[in-house]
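Q: Could you fold this chain for me?
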Amino acid sequence: MTYPQTFVQDIINEYCVPIQINNSLDDNKPIVERFRHVWTPDLRILDDSGYELYRWNGYLPPAEFAAQVLAALGHARLRLRQFEAAEAHYADLLRRFPTAFVAPEAQYFAAVTGYRKTGEPNALLHGWHELEKTYPKTEWAAKQNFD
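A: Sure. Below is the predicted structure, expressed as C-alpha cells.
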C-alpha cells in the first residue's frame, strides 16, 4: 500500500495540504464538477487560490508515487517561477528515485528550470545532454531533440 509508507507521508506532509473528497457524496458534487473528475485517485497540486498547477490519475507503487509527487511539486514551483524550489524538487527526485517512470520528465524539466532561472542556453543544453545520456530511449529525450 502506498499511502501508509513513511517516506510517502513525509513528502506529502512536508509540502502539501492533503485533502480527500468522496466523489460519491452529493455534498461533494460541486467540487467534483469543478475539477471535472473522471477517475480515482485524482491527484492535484493547487496553488493557494485553488488554481490547478499539476494533476495525475491512478494508483502507483510507493516509490513511483513519491517520485510523481516530487515531479508534480517541481512542476508547480516552475509554473510559479520559484526556480530554486523547482530545482530542489527535481534534484531530490533524481537523487532518490533515478529509475522512476517520471525521472526522465524530471530531468527534462530540471534543464528547463535552469534555463528559465538564468536565461543561459548552456544550462538547458547541459541538462538535456544529461537526459539524452541517462534516459536515451524515452519520450522526454525525443522531445529535446531539435533534429
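A (continued): The chain has a mean pLDDT of 94.
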